[in-house]
Amino acid sequence: MADVSNGTTGFTVNQGEPTRVLPAEETEKGLYYLSNLDQNIAVIMRTVYFFKSQSKGNEDAVEVVKKGLSKILVHHYPLAGRLTISTEGKLIVDCTGEGAVFVEAEAECGLDEMGDISKPDPNILGKLVYEIPGAQNLLQIPLLVIQVTRFKCGAFSIGMSMNHCMLDGIAAMEFVNGWGEVTRGLPLKTPPVLDRALLKPRNPPLMEFEHHEFDEIEDVSNTNTLYEEEELVYKSFLFDSDKLGQLKAEATDDGALSGCTTFEVLAGFVWRARCKALNLVPEQRTKLLFAVDGRQRFIPPLPQGFVGNGIVLTYSISTAGELVNKPLSFAVGLIQEAVKLATDSFMRSAIDYFEVTRARPSLDGTVLITTWSKLSFYTIDFGWGEPISTGPAALPEKPVLLFLPHHKDKKSINLLLGLPVSAMNTFEDLMQI
C-alpha cells in the first residue's frame, strides 16, 4: 500500500493498488458525443462523501460500494470509457468498457482526528481522492476514479474524481444517488438520458450575442504575482438565514432594486469583498462568471435525467472602482441582468460561438462562482444512511468560489474559497456583518 501522509496533522492514508471496476453487463461500444457545453468545462472535480452508521461498521463497505459501482456503470456506461479527441478536434468519449479506476484505502485515525472535514483542504481531503500518478493531461486521467477509505472509528469515505465534461452538478448528484439506489437493490429513481445530441450546434451556426464571458481581461492590479508569492489558504464562511436577510435588506435599502434572490445578493456581496481583499486598482476590469441551469430554459426543456452539462456560463463585467464605491444594489443589479441573459437563444448562441471560435472562457481577472447549495448531497445512501459530511476535496481553479449547502439546512449557505494569505485576512474582516 502507498503511504500518503500529512505532516501537519499526522493524518496518514494507506492506499492499495488501483484496479478497474467493469460494468456488470456488456455495454455499448463506440464513440459517444460530448456537446459544446461539455467542452467548455473539462476540469477534474474531486469530491468526498463521509458515512458512519450507529449500527453498522465499515468492514464490508469496500465490497458493497464496488459491486454497486459495477451496476451503475451499466446505466452510465460512457464513464467506463476513455476521453479522446475527435476528428473535429473536440473531446469525445471512446466507450471501451474498460471501467472506472477503484482504490481501497485505510486511514490510520478516526474521523474526529482529521479536523474540519467541511473545508476543501487539499492537504487533508486530497488524501481521500486517488490521483493518477504521472498523468500529464486530461486524456491520461480516467473519467471516473473512486477511492473508498475506511477509518478506525468505523466510518468510511468515498472520494470521487470525475471530469466535469461528463456531468454537471445536477447530473453528478443523480449519478451518485443512483449508485446508492442500485447498491441497495432499488430501481433508479431518475434513469439517465444519455443523448447529448439535444445540444448540438445549429447548422449553420448562429451567433446572436457578443459573449463577453470569453473576454480576456488584463491584470493591471498584478494579482497574479500575489498568488505566486504568497501561500494560498482555504476558508469557509457560513451565511445563515439572518445574515442573508441582512444582506437582502442592504441590497434593497436604496430602492434601486425591488427584491433579489439569495444567490444574487450573496454573489454580489462576495464579488465586491474579493475585489477589496485583493486590493484591485479602481480601473481594473473584473468579470463574474456563474453557471445557470439551462434545463428548463431551453426550448423545449431538456428531459429529466439528462446526462451531461445542462448549464451555461453567464457573466457580469464591471470595474473594481465601481463595484467597491457603489452600493451593494449595483453589483446585485448586474447579476440580475446576467441571470436574465440566460435564455434559449443566448444558450444556443453560446453553443454556436464555441463551434465557430473554439474559445474557452478566460479566467484572468475573473471570479467564477459555482453553486452547489441546491444539490441533493444529503440524500445519498449506500446502506449506511445519509452522509455525515460531504463536499469538494479541493477547488478546481484559483478564481473559483463555491456555494455549498450547510448540511440539510437549505436556508444556510457555506461559502468556500481560496485566497493568498494577506487577502484572506482582509476578506475575513469583510465577512463580519
In brief:
With 433 residues, the protein is of the alpha+beta class. 26% of the residues lie in helices and 26% in strands.
Could you describe the 3D structure shown?
Keywords: Transferase. InterPro entries: CAT-like_dom_sf (IPR023213), Plant_Fungal_Acyltransferase (IPR050317). Residues 1-20 are annotated as: Disordered. Belongs to the plant acyltransferase family. Residues 1-17 have a biased composition (Polar residues). This protein is of the alpha+beta class. Helix content is 26%, strand content 26%. Strands 1, 2, 3, 5, 8, 9, 10 and 15 form an 8-stranded mixed beta sheet that branches. A 6-stranded mixed beta sheet has the order 11-17-16-14-12-13. It has a 3-stranded antiparallel beta sheet with strand order 4-7-6, with no helix packed on it. The longest helix is centred in the middle third of the chain and has 16 residues, at 262-277. The chain is globular. The model is unreliable at 3-8 (pLDDT under 50).
